[in-house]
C-alpha cells in the first residue's frame, strides 16, 4: 500500500502546485531520496533523454523513429507525460504518453507506453489517469486516441468509447 | 472546365510560392479581381473573420461554440485551410478545415465544413486534397480524422481507411 500511497500523494501534490499550463514536477520532488522503498512519480517535464525514451520504446518492440523527429514531436505536443521509478537518487523512465491538441476543444493521445517490467501493476491506468487529469485541467472537452485492438478493452475500462454514435477513426498514409 | 482550371492553377501557384511552414496565399492572389467568372481559391491564412466562420458552421447546423475558444483552436492548429468563392473583389468563406499535429508524425483533421450551397460540386474533395497536400509537404506521415457515419464513404474515396488493422478511434468525455 505504501507504493500506491506514494504515487497518489505525489500525483496530488503536483496538481496542487500547478502554476501554468505545463507545470513541471519540481526537481526536489523528482530527485527526492527515499531510501526505504521505490517510488513512482509522474511529470510533465519535457527535458527527456531521447536515448532513454528510445530504450523504453525498444522494450515494447516499437519500430525505431529518427530522434530528430521524436524531439520535434515532443516539442510540439500539447502534453508530454512521463512516469518514473525513483530509487534513492536514481530515476528510471518506465512510462510515457503525449497528446496533441488545439488547446481548446480536442486532444489526441499518442505513444502510450509502459515498460514491460512494470506492466500488470495498474501503472498504465495510473499514467492514463494522470494524462486525463492534466487534459481536463486545461478544459479540453474531447479527448481522443487510436487504440490497437489488444488495448481497446483497457481504454474502455478508463471510460473511452469506441466509435461513439458511429464515428469512425480513419487513417490516410502518403502514397 | 474554366472553373476547375482556375482552382487547380491557384492551388499549384500557392504550393510553388511556399516560403515556410505556414505560407499564406498572397493578398494579391486572394483579392485578385476576375470579373468574368467566380473563382474558388484556397488559403492557409489564419486571419479569419470569426463571425463569418460561425455563419458557415451555422449553415451546416453545427452547435455554436464560444468564439474565444474557436480563436484559440485556430491559433493552435497546425494547419488552417479555408476555401473562398471570389467574385470580383468580393470573397466569401465557403469551406474550412483545420488539423492538429505534433509537426513530425501525426496530424488529425477537425472541423471540415463546406457550405451547403457549394456541396455536391466536388469542392469538399478539393478542400481535402488541399489539406492533404499541405500536410504531406510538411512530411506528416500519418493523417487521421474522426468521421461521422454519413461521411465515412466520402473519406474512403479520398484514400482514408477506417479502423486499419483493427485500430479503433476512441473518445473520452469529462464526467
Task: Describe the protein in words.
Two copies of one chain form a homodimer. Helices cover 34% and strands 27% of the residues of chain A. Chain A is of the alpha+beta class and 175 residues long. Chain A has one domain (2-166): Gcn5-related N-acetyltransferase (GNAT) (Aminopeptidase, 3-Layer(aba) Sandwich), CATH 3.40.630.30. In chain A, strands 1-2-3-4-5 form a five-stranded mixed β-sheet. In chain A, β2 and β3 form a beta hairpin. Chains A and B meet through α4, β3, β4, β5 and β6 of A and α4, β3, β4, β5 and α6 of B.
Describe the SSE topology.
Two copies of one chain form a homodimer.
Chain A: H1 2-16, H2 27-31, E1 39-43, H3 50-59, H4 67-75, E2 79-87, E3 90-101, E4 106-114, H5 123-137, E5 142-147, H6 152-157, E6 161-162, E7 168-172
Unreliable spans of chain A are: 1-36
**Number of domain units of chain A:** 1
Largest interface: A-B, 51 and 52 residues
User: Considering DSSP H and I runs of 4 or more, what fraction of the residues of chain A is helical?
Assistant: 25-40%
Please, how many helices of chain A? 6
Strand content of chain A: 25-35%
Oligomer: homodimer
List keywords for this structure.
homodimer; Aminopeptidase; five-stranded mixed beta sheet; 175 residues; disordered N terminus; 6 helices
Short description:
Chain A has 175 residues and is of the alpha+beta class. Chain A has helices at residues 2-16, 27-31, 50-59, 67-75, 123-137, 152-157; strands at 39-43, 79-87, 90-101, 106-114, 142-147, 161-162, 168-172. The first copy, chain A, contains six helices and seven strands.
Amino acid at each position: 500500500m505504501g507504493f500506491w500511497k506514494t504515487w497518489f500523494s505525489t500525483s496530488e501534490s503536483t496538481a496542487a502546485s500547478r502554476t501554468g499550463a505545463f507545470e513541471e514536477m519540481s526537481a526536489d520532488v523528482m530527485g527526492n531520496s527515499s531510501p526505504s522503498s521505490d517510488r513512482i512519480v509522474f511529470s510533465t517535464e519535457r527535458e527527456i533523454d531521447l536515448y532513454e525514451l528510445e530504450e523504453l520504446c525498444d522494450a515494447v518492440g516499437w519500430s525505431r523513429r529518427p530522434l530528430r523527429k521524436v524531439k520535434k514531436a515532443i516539442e510540439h505536443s500539447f502534453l508530454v507525460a512521463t512516469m518514473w521509478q525513483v530509487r534513492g537518487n536514481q530515476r528510471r523512465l518506465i512510462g510515457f504518453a503525449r497528446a496533441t491538441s488545439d488547446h481548446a476543444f480536442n486532444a489526441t493521445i499518442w505513444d502510450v507506453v509502459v515498460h514491460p517490467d512494470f506492466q500488470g501493476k495498474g501503472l498504465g491506468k495510473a499514467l492514463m489517469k494522470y494524462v486525463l487529469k492534466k487534459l481536463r485541467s486545461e478544459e479540453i472537452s474531447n479527448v481522443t486516441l487510436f487504440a490497437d485492438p489488444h488495448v481497446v478493452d483497457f481504454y474502455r475500462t478508463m471510460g473511452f468509447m469506441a466509435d461513439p454514435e458511429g464515428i469512425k477513426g480513419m487513417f490516410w498514409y502518403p502514397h
